[in-house]
């Protein structure tokens, strides 16, 4: 049972009035009755055998050819339609000789079809306003293939064209020798880009956990030999067998009359006919019990995997056969008790880890994996090299939960959290995006369950409360840890001498049940906490003239932006900006920047530690997010009206009464070391780790700290660095969402208004320099797949608000370069799966921007990338792009902004620091024009200004053996 929601569109018209430059999309007319009646006996096909109340927002049905559908109206965002075409066939349906075919067909479907000839698909969808890779995409798993389309700016003509094109792609793709020859290298490039240590760990884990089943070896990406042997005829045979209307489901959620949407499904898919009889169902097998051993603890598989650049991890699974079941209310109530049992264990594990346990983190989860196995998964990250102690500690916590029931106080704590998780969707259901609703249906079909609206889910939860008893939780806990087999894997970055027998011994050993893992029953409340100080008052209030946003100055100098609106009922987003950000951190103390990001909120405040903060948060919607910006520090949260005041208290208390526990700092150091070890495991990971530092001319404040640097860290110096930073001003509080002005002022004045006045930070100006031009690339190395490499070429641009309009035009240029690089590296030579081009322009710094192109490929293809990038840049300098090239970029950008602008987060992201810098409000007014209107000459002028070869900088990441 999955939850569905809906939303009104009133707010969208308000913000679009601010950004409007074009006429609204055409209104979709009422559909005429269908000429051919649907099968009324199959209207509830998703709910067969279930007593879960059907979500009446959806219209379910089955066409005479067997195709099932689900359609509904949803206006989030306005004038968009989301379509999902689900084919119930994935990699588990392949024969040995067909491995990779399901995924290859996904690619070929976009290559050539009845209404879209070779090379037309991507440009066509772009002209319709859809971005390739996000708005138009597909994914293949072991059990299904799903084609996804989110089409903005829908009109009757675009809707009809959309379903026409989709029908040709799904029902009548064209498989040609040239198409196969072109697409197979692209799939192999995708295979290379997804290879590496993490992939090898996942593959080895599946092979162990699901031994003897297709899930163990049938990866959707396939095998090189079967892909290279593919022919149009062999691919067509797989397509004809599984791509048939009685094996397909079409899900449509959009801003249109559902009968109009149903009419399109019928018009374009109703005449589709299957080729041959329907195939027999495919068996995915089931776990087999080990011979002999202990039936109570049937440890079957145990393995040690040495994989450099991967943090040490111990995972084990209790596996049971997956069984089809009726998705009834009683079944879902059982799942709720399962979830309650696991939540109790996970909370105890978190408390144990924070208290100085031998593990950094650990968790328990239950998953029905790919209709192949019902599994209970335990994941453990040791704090150091002593994995045996970590496994023993975690198993002791689990053993305690298996030995005796939890207290009613324990249950009540978790039930309060459940109440929040089920109630928030009820409060915010009008904000649910149509794309999420469509995805809910496809996921429900895959796991063979139903969907329900949030009111139904919450009602079932409330009805279930009497079932949440200590004895019921104990029984479900014991059931979760009983299974056909227990299988465990230790992943280690180096050979520690551990053997498969050691892993088995760790799982066979009888855990020691200790009595110190239970949580105290007393609960801290906000009423017990001291006031921040004497409440402040509003010294100045003025309207900004934009969307009703108000700018305030409190009596202590704190500034605020308030925007009360009903765009997203039940939701408030908050951002607190204070201090000087990275600029205020001395280069010699650079290591403490990212550690603050990881540990600062874990240290609590005043006399309240992190566990007590969890007590305060029970049943409440709080966030404790912290990040470093270039020129400010930021707290962010997503809360609800009833929790607004206490959410602000948590942030204000962190500034007023900082706490300096040592253990969170030590744990952050351990986590940072693990992250750094993993950052060398692939060429893309190395780029992500080092680009922020190298493109800032090696400013240490942007560098990921290495293990040697982390070894110099101590909690006393952490406090020395961060205590004065937390005391810096200025402070700005931004609140956008569902609140009243009176409510906001009360919360502000008693929290941030009660802080003592602060002195504004005066750090030296942060003026990052772009590295000097280099003809010979900087060479970095990775420890992953020796057949993979990555590269980047970047050109310096600029920074600062004075160039805001040019920065947006540069995004258009970047996307033009991206389309050309995509065509050159992927379509023409198949060297890369997904080259990326981005434009970065820091608004709060005078410089530091760049336009950069990155790619992952084979080491021997690196020269081809640099040649292609230089060729594209030189051509754009010498010749303007075509108007069609521009429109393929500007139409998706316009639609992207139009959709994003229907939510509060869009405006908050643009107005960071707006209370201190009012000019940012003026910048909003031109955003849609800046991103959607330009000329070929303007693009050529930008290219001539910035894509200068003698200013470019390049880097490549090669395997260590290729250095």
UniProtKB/TrEMBL annotation:
The keyword Isomerase is annotated on this UniProt entry: no
The Peptidase M16 C-terminal domain, residue ranges: 230-416, 735-889
Protein's recorded name: M16 family metallopeptidase
InterPro entries on file: Metalloenz_LuxS/M16, Pept_M16_N, Peptidase_M16, Peptidase_M16_C, TAT_signal
Family annotation (SUPFAM superfamilies): LuxS/MPP-like metallohydrolase
The keyword Flavoprotein is assigned to this record: no
Domain Peptidase M16 N-terminal: 77-195
Signal sequence bounds: 1-25
Entry keyword set: Hydrolase, Metalloprotease, Protease, Signal, Zinc
Protein family (similarity comment): Belongs to the peptidase M16 family.
């Amino acid at each position: 049972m999955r939850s569905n929601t809906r939303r009104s569109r009133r707010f969208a018209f308000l913000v679009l009035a601010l950004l409007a430059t074009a006429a609204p999309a055409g209104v979709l007319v009422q559909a005429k009755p269908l000429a051919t009646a649907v099968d009324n006996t199959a209207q509830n096909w998703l709910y067969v055998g279930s007593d879960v109340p059907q979500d009446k927002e959806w219209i379910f049905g089955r066409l005479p050819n067997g195709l099932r559908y689900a359609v509904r109206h949803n206006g989030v965002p306005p004038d968009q339609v989301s379509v999902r075409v689900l084919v119930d066939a994935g990699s588990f349906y392949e024969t040995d000789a067909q491995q990779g075919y399901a995924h290859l067909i996904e690619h070929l479907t976009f290559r050539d079809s009845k209404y879209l000839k070779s090379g037309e698909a991507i440009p066509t969808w772009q002209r319709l306003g859809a971005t390739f890779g996000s708005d138009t995409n597909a994914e293949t798993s072991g059990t299904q293939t799903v084609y996804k389309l989110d089409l903005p700016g829908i009109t009757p003509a675009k809707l009809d064209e959309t379903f026409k094109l989709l029908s040709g792609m799904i029902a009548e793709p064209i498989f040609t020798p040239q198409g196969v020859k072109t697409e197979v290298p692209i799939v192999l490039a995708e295979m290379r880009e997804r290879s590496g240590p993490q992939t090898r760990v996942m593959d080895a884990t599946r092979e162990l956990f699901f031994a003897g089943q297709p899930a163990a070896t049938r990866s959707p990406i396939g095998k090189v030999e079967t892909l290279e042997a593919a022919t149009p005829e062999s691919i067509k045979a797989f397509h004809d067998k599984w791509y048939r209307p009685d094996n397909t489901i079409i899900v449509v959620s959009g801003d249109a009359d559902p009968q109009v949407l149903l009419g399109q499904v019928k018009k374009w898919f109703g005449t589709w006919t299957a080729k041959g009889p329907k195939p027999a169902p495919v068996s995915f097998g089931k776990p087999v019990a080990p011979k002999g051993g202990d039936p109570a603890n049937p440890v079957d598989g145990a393995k040690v995997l040495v994989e450099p650049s991967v943090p040490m991890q111990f995972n084990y699974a209790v596996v049971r056969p997956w069984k089809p079941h009726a998705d009834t209310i009683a079944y879902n109530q059982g799942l709720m008790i399962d979830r309650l049992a696991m939540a109790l264990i996970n909370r105890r594990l978190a408390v144990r880890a924070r208290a100085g346990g031998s593990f950094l983190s650990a968790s328990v989860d239950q998953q029905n994996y790919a209709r192949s196995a019902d599994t209970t998964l335990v994941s453990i990250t040791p704090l150091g090299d002593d994995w045996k102690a970590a496994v023993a500690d975690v198993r002791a916590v689990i053993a305690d939960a298996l030995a005796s029931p939890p207290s009613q106080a324990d249950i009540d704590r978790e039930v309060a959290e459940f109440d929040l998780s089920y109630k928030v969707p009820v409060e915010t259901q009008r904000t649910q995006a149509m794309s999420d609703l469509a995805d809910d249906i496809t996921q429900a079909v895959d796991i063979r369950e139903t969907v329900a609206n949030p009111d139904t889910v919450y009602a079932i939860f409330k009805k279930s409360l009497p079932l949440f008893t200590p004895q019921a939780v104990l029984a479900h806990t014991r059931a979760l840890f009983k299974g056909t087999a227990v299988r465990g894997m230790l992943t280690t970055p180096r050979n520690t001498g551990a053997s498969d027998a050691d892993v088995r011994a760790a799982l066979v050993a009888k855990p020691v049940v200790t009595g110190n893992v239970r949580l105290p029953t007393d609960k801290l409340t906000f009423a017990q906490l001291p006031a921040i100080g004497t409440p402040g008052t509003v010294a100045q209030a003025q309207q900004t003239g934009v969307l009703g946003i108000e700018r305030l100055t409190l009596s202590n100098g704190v500034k605020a932006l308030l925007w009360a609106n009903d765009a997203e009922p039940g939701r408030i987003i908050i951002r607190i900006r204070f201090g000087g950000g990275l600029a205020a951190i001395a280069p010699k103390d650079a290591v403490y920047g990212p550690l603050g990001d990881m540990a600062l909120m874990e240290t609590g405040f005043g006399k309240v530690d992190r566990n007590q903060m969890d007590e305060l948060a029970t049943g409440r919607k709080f966030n404790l997010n912290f990040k470093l910006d270039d020129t400010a520090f930021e707290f962010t949260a997503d809360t609800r009206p009833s929790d607004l005041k206490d959410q602000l208290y948590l942030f204000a208390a962190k500034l007023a009464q900082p706490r300096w526990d040592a253990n969170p700092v030590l744990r952050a150091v351990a986590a940072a070391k693990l992250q750094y070890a993993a950052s060398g495991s692939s060429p893309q990971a190395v780029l992500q780790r080092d680009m922020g530092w190298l493109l800032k001319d090696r400013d240490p404040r942007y560098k990921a700290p290495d293990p040697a640097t982390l070894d110099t860290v101590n909690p006393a110096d952490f406090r020395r660095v961060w205590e004065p930073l937390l005391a810096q001003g200025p402070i700005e509080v931004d609140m956008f969402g569902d609140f009243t002005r009176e409510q906001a002022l009360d919360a502000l004045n008693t929290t941030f208004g009660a802080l003592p006045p602060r002195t504004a930070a005066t750090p030296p100006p942060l003026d990052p320099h772009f590295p000097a031009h280099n003809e010979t690339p900087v060479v970095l190395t990775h420890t992953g797949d020796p057949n993979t490499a990555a590269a980047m070429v970047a050109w310096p641009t600029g920074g600062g608000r004075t160039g805001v309009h040019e920065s947006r035009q540069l995004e258009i240029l970047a996307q033009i370069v991206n389309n050309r690089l995509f065509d050159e590296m992927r379509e023409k030579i198949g060297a890369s799966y997904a080259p990326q081009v981005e434009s970065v322009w820091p608004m709060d710094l005078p410089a530091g921007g760049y336009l950069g192109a990155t790619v992952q490929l084979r080491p021997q293809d690196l020269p081809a990338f640099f040649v292609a990038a230089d060729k594209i840049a030189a051509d754009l300098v010498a010749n303007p792009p075509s108007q069609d090239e521009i429109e393929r970029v500007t139409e998706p950008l316009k639609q992207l902004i139009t959709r994003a602008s229907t939510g509060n987060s869009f405006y908050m992201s643009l107005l960071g620091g707006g209370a201190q810098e009012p000019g940012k409000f003026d910048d909003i007014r031109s955003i849609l024009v800046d991103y959607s209107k330009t000329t070929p000459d303007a693009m050529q002028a930008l290219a001539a200004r910035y894509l200068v070869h003698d200013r470019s900088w390049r880097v490549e990441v090669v395997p260590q053996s290729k250095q």
